[in-house]
């Protein structure tokens, strides 16, 4: 039969991008951050990253075996979840707690809700928040070079001065992946250039957050304070890598902008008025829960569609 | 099995209020931070349940149908008040732990559910055993959840340290609200596995048969119920 008469159902033109390919781009984009984290925190960080990824991959494999589902390891999403979760953990965390976190991310947050595409919140962040509540002491033990120090955000909250240059290049206390803003931005630019993410969510997130901090932060237009707030904590990592997760962010363009505004306001609220210095992960998973509603109110108008009231003109 | 033992079996296993009927979820999730709290809450509910079933069954021919709900509430509320005073007098620490959830037994759906679906239609003695069975089932459910949450969340059992803190790091999320949901979900899932296994073996663990409303369409249990009139099939 000639090619010309080949009859098939749509879609006829497919993009080269598969889930696995996009996830691979994300892993590549996370490499600078991971490498810097290992350089900064030593072999412990490397062990933690490997253990978390292994825990996620094994959990997904075991779950699919038990419920007799098709093996979904090939789409690499479990690896991305594990890597993101590890980057959100302090390097001093005991390895078995990281294993619990990985299993929680994959089994409870992702697989029980139907696997990739059905999860209602970002698995890595869900697990981070689980660990943060379950093992509060271990999760906030930030040690760098055997010197236990406060994170820049905690120092900022106590009114101490912070060195923003150190925060840009990452020589501060924090989780494995959040300290080096430059490395995160390199990865983010790579993702934007490859067309994996666009700037709508991170852009509105950061702009809203800056405006919120100028108004409510208590330091006005003090640029040192604003830059420190932007580079401190998980804001950059969250904005570019976690808030842009396809499954848990709105698909409508206006919805993405609204989502970014939600994130900015919630993060600002948590950081200025909350009990902890950091609130990015809680802001993102709370906004994840709002996504279905955001999508409902931002459905784009179809071409030629007329408003109810104007029909009978 | 005589009908009184059948009532006990029904309450504790077949129609366990926590794991099968899913009734009384508010105290189930809120007070089960420890095994002792679960046991205390379950037993105080049991006492109220036995007495309310007794009184409602005894008065079932006197109470006019139109005002039966207010009548039940008055009976249950009086009993709860008595139980609350007794607890405050003899077990003040437990009463302080359970706090507002003792007065809230008045609106516990297990009690009103049993009054409506069983005690108002059956003689006194079976109703008492129905209340006892249901109450023990509730106590069993709450204590199970409490034991698991206490061990995982604090390494303790009934207040005694059973897991040494030298090597055990308490998973504090389990004594907080999210832990209650996680533990309950896992236990209900296990219960459903048991149910399916029994059905596969041809010995179905009979699904709840006591109708709460008599109307299958608006009943939350209709998906589990075997006595359901499936209109789609019979037509």
From the structure above, extract its key features.
heterodimer, A: mainly alpha, Ammonium transporter fold, two-stranded antiparallel ribbon, 14 helices, B: 235 residues, mainly alpha, two-stranded antiparallel sheet, 9 helices, 60% helix, 2% strand
Looking at how many chains there are and whether they match, the oligomeric state comes to heterodimer
SS content category of chain B: mainly alpha
Largest interface: A-B, 10 and 8 residues
* Element order of chain B: H for helix, E for strand: HHHHHHHEEHH
Strand order of the largest sheet of chain A: 1-2
End-to-end gap of chain B = 37 Å
CATH topology group of chain A: Ammonium transporter fold
Helix fraction of chain A by DSSP (H/I, runs of at least 4): 55-70%
Compute the number of strand runs of chain B: 2
**DSSP strand tally of chain A:** 2
Task: Identify the CATH architecture of chain A.
Answer: Orthogonal Bundle
- Biggest sheet of chain A: strands, sense, closure? 2 strands, antiparallel
């Amino acid at each position: 039969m000639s090619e010309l008469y080949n009859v098939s159902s749509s879609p006829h033109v497919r993009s080269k991008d598969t889930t696995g390919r996009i996830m691979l781009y994300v892993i590549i984009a996370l490499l600078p951050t991971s490498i810097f984290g290992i350089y900064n925190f030593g072999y412990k960080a490397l062990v933690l990253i490997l253990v978390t990824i292994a825990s996620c991959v094994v959990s997904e494999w075991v779950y699919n075996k038990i419920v007799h589902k098709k093996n979904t390891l090939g789409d690499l999403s479990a690896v991305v979840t594990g890597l993101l979760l590890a980057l959100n953990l302090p390097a001093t965390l005991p390895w078995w707690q990281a294993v619990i976190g990985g299993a929680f991310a994959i089994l409870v947050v992702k697989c029980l809700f139907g696997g990739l595409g059905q999860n209602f919140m970002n698995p890595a962040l869900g697990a981070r928040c689980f660990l943060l509540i379950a093992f509060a002491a271990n999760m906030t033990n930030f040690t760098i070079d055997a010197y236990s120090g406060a994170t820049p955000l905690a120092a900022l909250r106590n009114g101490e001065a912070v060195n923003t240059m150190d925060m840009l290049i990452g020589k501060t206390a924090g989780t494995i992946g959040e300290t080096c803003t430059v490395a995160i931005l390199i990865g983010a630019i790579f993702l934007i250039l490859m067309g994996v993410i666009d700037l709508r969510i991170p852009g509105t997130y950061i702009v809203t957050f800056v405006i919120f901090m100028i108004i409510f932060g208590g330091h006005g237009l003090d640029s040192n304070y604003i830059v420190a707030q932007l580079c401190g904590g998980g804001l950059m990592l969250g904005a570019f890598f976690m808030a842009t997760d396809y499954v848990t962010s709105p698909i409508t363009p206006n919805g993405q902008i609204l989502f970014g505004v939600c994130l900015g306001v919630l993060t600002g609220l948590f950081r200025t008025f909350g009990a902890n210095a950091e609130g990015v992960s809680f802001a993102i998973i709370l906004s994840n829960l709002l996504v279905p509603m955001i999508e409902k109110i931002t459905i784009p108008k179809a071409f030629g569609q007329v408003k109810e009231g104007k029909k009978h003109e | 099995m005589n009908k009184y033992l059948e009532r006990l079996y029904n309450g504790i296993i077949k129609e366990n209020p926590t794991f099968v009927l899913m009734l009384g979820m508010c105290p189930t999730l809120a007070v089960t931070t420890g095994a002792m709290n679960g046991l205390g809450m379950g037993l105080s509910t049991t006492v109220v349940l036995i007495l309310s079933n007794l009184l409602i069954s005894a008065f079932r021919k006197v109470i006019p149908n139109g005002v039966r709900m207010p009548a039940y509430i008055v009976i249950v509320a009086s009993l709860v008040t008595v139980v609350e005073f007794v607890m405050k007098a003899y077990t003040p620490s437990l009463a302080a732990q359970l706090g507002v959830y003792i007065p809230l037994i008045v609106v516990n759906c297990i009690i009103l559910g049993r009054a409506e679906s069983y005690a108002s239609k059956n003689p006194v003695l079976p109703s008492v055993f129905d209340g006892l069975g249901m109450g023990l089932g509730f106590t069993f459910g709450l204590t199970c959840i409490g034991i698991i949450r206490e061990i995982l969340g604090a390494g303790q059992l009934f207040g005694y340290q059973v897991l040494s803190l030298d090597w055990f790091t308490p998973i504090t999320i389990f004594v907080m609200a999210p832990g209650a949901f996680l533990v309950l979900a896992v236990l209900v899932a296990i219960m459903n596995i048991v149910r399916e296994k029994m059905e596969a073996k041809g010995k179905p663990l009979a699904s709840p048969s006591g109708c709460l409303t008599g109307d299958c369409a608006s009943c939350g249990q209709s998906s589990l119920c075997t006595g359901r009139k499936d209109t789609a099939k019979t037509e």
